[in-house]
Design a protein that fits this description.
Distance between the termini: 74 Å
Order of helices and strands: HHHHHHHHHHHH
Structural class: mainly alpha
Strand content: under 5%
Largest sheet: none
Shape: elongated
């Protein structure tokens, strides 16, 4: 902090271009005031004390948050704030993935876990229990029939396994495929 202030010690806030054009911002944060950097830093710290999380501060008082960010004092202003206690772990991502039968279902129901696992490189381990679908599978009449038997109706078959349904249609065997009950 002291090294940061020493570089800006004699500069006034008005000489720094922060790009804040919020009319509701307190005067100390506005560009056209001649406040010292020290007073702006102190003001930002006092404003940050009102909040328990960075996101609350950023959402409610974006001007003071932005000014603190531009001055490089966010960590110092936010050191009193609670850090999330429930940080997602690899085990939590694996647990959420085990609740799903497909990767698409995991992505839809637990999108944060899905994206976190990909970002951290855990996706393969999280989804090893999910059977991998074969892309560009060559659908034969026999495979189409096996897939059709798994479904009670033609519309259920089309929703669940559109690729095999379209292949059966393309092969001209759609009417000969048997279902559990039509």
């Amino acid at each position: 902090m002291l090294s940061l202030l020493s570089t800006y010690e004699k500069q006034s806030v008005s000489s720094l271009d922060f790009g804040i054009s919020n009319r509701n911002a307190p005067n100390i944060l506005k560009r056209d005031t001649n406040q010292s950097i020290e007073s702006v830093v102190e003001f930002c710290k006092k404003r940050a004390l009102r909040y328990t999380s960075r996101s609350d501060w950023r959402n409610i008082e974006s001007c003071s948050y932005k000014r603190a960010s531009e001055l490089g004092i966010l960590d110092e202003c936010c050191n009193h704030m609670n850090t999330p206690k429930n940080k997602k772990t690899k085990e939590a991502c694996i647990t959420s993935a085990r609740k799903c039968t497909t990767i698409a279902q995991w992505k839809k129901n637990y999108s944060y876990d899905y994206f976190l696992a990909h970002k951290k490189g855990w996706a393969e381990e999280c989804t090893k229990h999910i059977p991998k679908t074969r892309k560009n599978q060559k659908w034969t009449p026999e495979l189409c029939q096996q897939e059709a038997i798994k479904h009670k109706t033609r519309s259920d078959w089309r929703r669940s396994s559109n690729a095999s349904y379209l292949a059966a249609s393309r092969l001209g065997i759609l009417s000969t495929c048997k279902h559990a009950s039509i």
